[in-house]
Amino acid sequence: MIRPAVLTGLPRAAASLLFVSALAAALACERAPRSDVVDSVPARIDSAPKYRSEVDEGLGASVAILVDNSGSMREKAQGDQRPKYLIAREALEAMLASTDSFVARQPGFPINVGIYRFSSTVTPVVRVTRYDRAALEAALDSMPSPKGGTAIGDAMDAARADLYRSGTFRKYILVITDGENTAGTSPQRVAEEINRRSEGAVRMYFVAFDVDAERFAFVRDVHGEVVGARNGDALRARLDEIYRGKILSEAVDAGETRPGAADSAARDSATPPPTPKRDTRR
């Protein structure tokens, strides 16, 4: 800044011009960014790296089942006198029973299943591990009475982490809920991040139980599926369609039945058919 004493003796016009120039330079310095100030804007989510498995992965399917245990699940479902949480648990038990026949047909194909309950917080009831029907049914029966909010996004993130410790290429998240997210991270944001950072390796399915399925329309934007179930019968049907009709059958349709099946098919296709013998009889 130019001190008034410095301007003494200069013509008035020159002094005014010099003062204005100095003031403009000072203001420019004030507006200039400081090199010692760290940018407080967080890094874009797009810069996050791809998920990496913590173990070696191979054939098989791993399914994380996320069960809504919020207070609204105590209410009765349409056309039923029982609370929704009991109907949901019975439907899940029926769904898991179909795994028995699949395992019997494909004993060499690993099926891993985990159950996570969520209200205002998330609790892994059974982390994703090799299918054990008795353990899963006991876990469903041990779940406490529903209460609290609905942390769908947090449950999805917790399940995703365990899926990357399961050891299979195929990974699925199956959500059963009767309401919107009311706690924790937005499920839409989590779904978008999972889809991008897994490069589509984690498939997501939502079953909207006694609630408008369009509330979860964002699932379709990440190549997942969302279906509605207004009552207990519809819930059982939707779960069967997703679990047995899509998740389990998808592996079979891709030729991932038994380790030797693909090799056998390759040998069959590589071996030319035998040349038919000519009938030389007269």
Protein model, in words:
With 282 residues, this protein is an alpha/beta fold. The protein is built from nine helices and six strands, in the order H-H-E-H-E-E-H-H-E-H-E-H-E-H-H. It has helices at residues 4-7, 12-31, 84-105, 133-141, 152-163, 187-197, 218-221, 232-253, 259-270, and strands at residues 58-68, 111-118, 122-130, 168-177, 202-209, 225-229. A six-stranded mixed beta sheet has the order 3-2-1-4-5-6, with helices on both faces. Helix 6 (187-197) links the parallel strand 4 (168-177) and strand 5. Helix 3 packs parallel to helix 8.
Structural features:
globular, Rossmann fold, 41% helix, 282 residues, six-stranded mixed β-sheet, alpha/beta, 6 strands, disordered C terminus
Lay out the secondary structure:
Layout (H helix, E strand, L loop, with lengths): L3 H4 L4 H20 L26 E11 L15 H22 L5 E8 L3 E9 L2 H9 L10 H12 L4 E10 L9 H11 L4 E8 L8 H4 L3 E5 L2 H22 L5 H12 L12
Parallel strand pairs: 1-2, 1-4, 4-5, 5-6
Antiparallel strand pairs: 2-3
Q: Helicity level, as a percent range?
A: 40-55%
Q: Class of the domain at 84-253, according to the CATH hierarchy?
A: Alpha Beta
Uncertain ranges: 4-10, 26-44, 255-282
- How far is the first residue's CA from the last residue's CA? 123 Å
Shape: globular
Adjacency order of strands in the biggest sheet? 3-2-1-4-5-6
| Radius of gyration based on Cα positions | 31 Å
Biggest beta-sheet profile: 6 strands, mixed
Q: Counting H and I runs of at least 4 residues, what is the number of helices?
A: 9
Derived from helix and strand composition plus strand pairing, the structural class reads alpha/beta
SSE ordering: HHEHEEHHEHEHEHH
Residue-averaged pLDDT: 77
Q: Report the CATH architecture of the domain at 84-253.
A: 3-Layer(aba) Sandwich
